[in-house]
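Readers of this paper often ask what the protein records in our data store actually look like. The remainder of this section carries one protein's record, kept here as part of the documentation.

:::
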Amino acid sequence: MAINRGSRRNRKRRLMADINVVPYIDVMLVLLIIFMVTAPLLNLGVDIELPQSDARPLEQRQDPVVVSVDRDGNLFLTVGGADQQAVSAEEMTSQVAAFVRQNPDVAVYVAGDRETPYEVVYEVLTALQTQAGVERAGLMSQPAEAGG
């Protein structure tokens, strides 16, 4: 028995040089799932299909105020080059009125989707002129395709 004990003591315990990567793989998969779920939510813009025209673009000194109307009649406001935000009709008129009071030379445009009823775009233009105090509001369009 003494021989067995001595041989066990003489054997040195080898250090383990491997890294356990299982927890890192678990964390990576959780992060992958989080990014896959949140990536579609990062699309903050609204797809609006503008009508086409041959009008020449206007030169501007500062970023315009753009009121976008999607095909369902929802309003989105872009003020001074900031991100687009969904607003109600009352919020749109009050925010545009406040911005136009401070910047009287700013251009105000309405970007109505091609599928939006004309009545909705007309109501937005009327609200901008009567309630927000905008003297001139223009309509946005895309350049006409060549040969079409």
